[in-house]
Design brief:
mainly beta; 8-stranded antiparallel beta barrel; Porin; elongated
């Protein structure tokens, strides 16, 4: 995976540095992130089995990050950026229902846990300049996500309902991540730009740790987490 990311970065980098010297770029980004999540599985506890059924839902939180790289002129009115970025979201919340003994009639518990994703990636942008100050762009990134699932809790539907199992542990999953985006930047001065953009991000999967009482290592995990983001950016260009 790391070789694939490195090679992609090299091939993106070559056409930029071969045409012009890079202009240093530092960008801060922050905005809303809407994640589509679902978890569903059954786990064996020896004498009985529980099913964990997550409802297909979305959760909106914040995503923020920084980019450090360079920009160079490619052709008339066209320029490119390439560099490294780091992003991290505020916790997404995953939730669902516990079917004790895998019987839908015993849906007396609701479960919930949180997911934080930290990503490191190679980012590239292709920008077009018009009216001297506007820069619509297309963007792509390739990298790795470190998805931490943690803080698992179960909530009884009534005081008569109790959990028969200890909570699942915290766990971090490493996953290949990519993003595709578009937007527009505006020159404020010769060195500062403001931007607004949309980005689709694939965070990969996330899973909890195990409980001491289960049989085997199978645990609650999410299908790939897809995120739609709207980001406000401010950039400094050297």
């Amino acid at each position: 995976m790391q070789k694939r990311i490195l090679l992609a970065g090299v091939f993106l980098f070559i056409p930029i540095v071969s045409l012009a010297a890079l202009r240093p770029v530092f960008t801060l980004s922050s905005g809303f992130a809407n994640a589509n999540m679902r978890s569903s599985t059954s786990i064996n506890f020896g004498s009985f089995q529980n099913s964990y059924v997550g409802g297909s839902h979305s959760d909106t939180d914040f995503d923020s990050g920084l980019f450090l790289g360079g920009e160079a002129l490619l052709l008339q009115n066209w320029s490119g950026q390439i560099g490294l970025s780091y992003f991290q979201n505020s916790p997404f919340v995953e939730s669902g229902t516990v079917y004790q003994f895998s019987d839908p009639a015993f849906n007396n518990l609701n479960y919930q846990y949180q997911i934080i994703s930290r990503r490191i990636s190679i980012d590239a942008k292709l920008l077009y300049a018009f009216c001297q100050i506007w820069h619509p762009y297309l963007a792509v990134s390739l990298g790795e996500a470190f998805n931490k699932a943690y803080n698992y809790t179960e909530t009884p539907a009534s005081t008569a309902d109790v959990s028969l199992t200890p909570p699942f542990g915290n766990h971090t999953t490493n996953a290949f991540s990519y993003s595709l985006g578009l937007g527009i930047d505006l020159d404020i001065t010769n060195h500062w730009r403001l931007g607004l953009g949309y980005r689709f991000v694939d965070l990969g999967s996330a899973s909890l740790g195990v409980t001491p009482s289960q049989i085997g290592t199978h645990t609650i995990s999410n299908t790939p987490i897809y995120v739609n983001e709207v980001l406000l950016r401010i950039s400094f260009l050297g």
